[in-house]
Write a structure and sequence with these properties.
Blueprint (H helix, E strand, L loop, with lengths): L1 H6 L1 H8 L6 H7 L6 H7 L1 H12 L12 H12 L13
Helix pairs in contact: 3-6
């Protein structure tokens, strides 16, 4: 079932609309993220999508709800000026 999403245009369009297209600036923000948590969390996205491709219905938004806070905060750090994109944990 999930493989048909990749070849069916209207379902593929639905998949690209996940997260309200915020995945586009998220892709650009990965290189700018300085916080180690967000850099590690960004690496979870391909893993979650790969696992859900096998076991889940990948065009349902609810299976990605755990990723929404990470995505939104990463995009917010991308939009903020670079001086605000520092680690939340102070160096000791």
């Amino acid at each position: 079932m999930n493989a048909t999403i990749l070849i069916t245009p209207h379902r593929l369009f639905h998949m690209t609309a996940l997260f309200g297209y915020l995945w586009v600036p998220f892709l650009f923000s990965i290189g700018r993220l300085k916080d180690p948590f967000f850099r590690a969390a960004a690496g979870l996205f391909p893993l979650v999508f790969g696992l859900m491709f096998i076991v889940g219905n990948i065009d349902e938004f609810r299976i990605y709800t755990e990723l929404v806070p990470i995505l939104l905060l990463s995009v917010a750090l991308f939009v903020l000026p670079p001086e605000h994109n520092a680690s939340a944990v102070p160096d000791l």
